[in-house]
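Thread: Newbie trying to understand structure tokens

Hi all, I'm a second-year student working on a class project, and my supervisor (Dr. K.) asked me to get a predicted structure for one chain before our next meeting. I've only ever worked with sequences, so writing a 3D structure as a token string is new to me. If someone could post the tokens and maybe explain what I'm looking at, I'd be very grateful. Here's the chain:
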Amino acid sequence: MITSDEIKRRLWDGANDLRGSMDASRYKDYMLGLMFYKFLSDQTLETFKDTSGETESDKMKLVESYREAHQEYGEQLTNMIGNVLGYYVLPEYLYQNWMADINNGDFEVQKVIDSLNNFERTIAVSGDSDDFKGLFSNSTLDLSNTALGSTLNERSKNIKKLILLFADLDMVALQKRDVLGDAYEYLIGQFAMESGKKAGEFYTPRQVSEVMAQIVAQSSNINSIYDPTVGSGSLLLTARNHLLKDDQKLLNYYGQEKNTATYNLTRMNLLLHGVRPERMTIRNGDTLAEDWPEDPDQPSEGVQFDAVVMNPPYSVKNWNQSDLKVSDPRFEVAGVLPPDSKGDYAFLLHGLYHLGQEGTMAIVLPHGVLFRGGTEGQIRKRLLEKNYIDTIIGLPDKLFTNTGIPVTVIILKKNRALDAPVLVIDASHTFTKEGKQNVLREKDIARLVDTYVKRSETKGYSHLATREEIIENEYNLNIPRYIESVDEEIPHDVDAHLFGGIPYKNIKDLHVLQSTVPHVIENALEEVRTGYVQLKHDIDVLKESVLEDNAVLEKSKSLEGRIKSYQDKYWELLKSVNDVNDIKAIREAMLDEIKEILSEFDYIDEYDGYQIIADIWSETLTEDAEIIAVSDFYEKGRKRVPNIVTKGSGNKKREEQDGWIGSIVPNDLIRTTLYNEELVNIETKETRLQEVESELTELVEAAKVEESDEEIALSDTLNEKEDAFLIGSVRNELKAVEKESTDHALLKNIEELLNERTKLNRDVKKLETELKEMTETRIETLTDEEIDTLMYEKWFGSVISKVNRLLEIPLTEELVVLEQLQDRYSDTLDALEAESEELEKELEVMMAQMVVSG
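---
Reply by user tm_fold:
Sure, no problem. This is what the structure looks like when written as tokens:
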């Protein structure tokens, strides 16, 4: 079974190999378009098989059965398939025919063009859903484009490779497991990163989508969701993922996209994620130029939605090409039109107009919308007076590939209590760097969403701004006006600098140490004068005392017990998972519960623990759970699969099998756990090999020293280019010197070292080969108990130590502060003056000794 991660890696590697110099933003249309056509063909065949009672499992034989049935029943058959799917692909135009032509050497690009055009005509004639019309238009998939190859032969070759990339993927099975949609979304994201500035046309970074979607999903009864600048549809789908399964089935999706190629991408993305055609209404049009969707029965109100999400283009100039007036119902609430030079508030007001009374809207915009004046200031004031702005979230810069500016997510509601404050969150400092981009981690997203849900205030991070504060700030929502950055610098104490000692008030501010081990801290200090103390011992001694104190050890033991019970609970759930659709719920439960457990322990950051579990899911659990869900845990534990490695480069790049690896049990873990004695033997020989290499290196250097014994005896045996001794030369020299001489002893030592090195290299290689073979064979004979031991170690082996580290971090951080205070005040003014006087005396002595010549 191919997992989601394996598909992602394979398809993206394939994309990089095949696209050559074509721009990523353009190549994505070809790759994702053909991938989608494979999905349509597989769905057509699967539906034919189900509705006709066909039992044939071989795809090409099934194609033949479909062809024969179509010859006999014609439109009756295609109508039956169309009624189920909302579309169909005729037998002669199936993706499988392209594959057969490639295998037979009969492939022609024109057949692909004919297939895509026929599908377009079929949809147009049948009057089926608009969701399929124009998907493969020439403007999107121009297979005659010279960027695919300067000649027909080159284009044919490249298109064949692209077709074969999806050849063995069962799109129907992958969609049922929700793997296909994830892979498609992943590819869109990867193409976005490669596309640079052009990515803004079709993609919202996953972590920004998550923040917006999770907040919107907190609203109840979401039956409809709208994205007026829908891009690839990622915001709609991410919001869908945070709804209950039953609610997902009833969700209606609406979106509008100006760019035709991106509009096609949206529809493909939604359909691949299992969204039924009748549940999606996506339009190719300009959101600002003409309001959509409209309600014919209520032309002045517009269609309203339970949720609105938007990532519009930022600060669009000349947005009002249609000469819209303030009387446009979308802008009436503001009383003025947004400035023609910046379309940010035009998009916001459009979305707000279509927001239902009980709904939630999330829009991401540049920070300028929070404080710019003029008509934008008037609009912001009107929105605040109407009480529509619910939350302001400041995000880091460099989150988007198409802009480096920091952005803000604004949450709007129409049903807020009159006295409800505006929640301001400054999440601009919580991120990690990945290359040139900043990325929100799982824990950053969790902290942000929890703060939103709880409406909690945290110094330096979040604040509930009252109406009075906002009025006092003249309706300026610039985040620094409401949240001050936390200054962690401890003020200097003049007396301490003059006379030494650490101010005791600074010791009292070490809240974690004072709360956890107050007796240890008190015993470690001695008073130098009233209100000032110094450390009795080195900081390392104090650290050891703190971490080995009974209070810390008891807390650690209690924490370990809770984590062990937590691990055991989810161990049983994970090893017995039998439905791919249950995996997400298990993951969410694990993440929520680790936060609950750690929140019971003072001074532990539960979000750091959240990240530990999120990382385990990312690194191992997601892929393993997918494999286990479609099989048996112990069966997969004893299954081995080919270890495919890539060798060579350029035209010589190829994939080869290099032995076997466990389907879920890592070979390295089998070696370290079950073959420890063999590993120790190898490591012992490798250690001796390093010693021999070191001895030889020293002798090589000695042989370069002129007139040394080593140079006289060994110089003729050296290969100077490689800085190494030649065994043949060493043996020849041995024959020429006296046996009892110094030269003979040196040469004999070199010979023995070279022989030993050769033998050690041979032995290590032989032992490693034997261990590799034993490990690969052992996979298939692992007992249930061994699989339990190995997989528990793989999933949870490092969790307790990492969580215990979270217990130590706040203690050690305050110990570092204590050490800094000790260093800061260790040199008093008197000591510095004495040192200065001593230096002056030394200088005078030196000056007196200096002789000036004429």
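A couple of things are worth pointing out once you decode it. Residues 149 and 155 are 4 Å apart (CA to CA). Residues 674-781 form one domain. Feel free to ask follow-ups in this thread.
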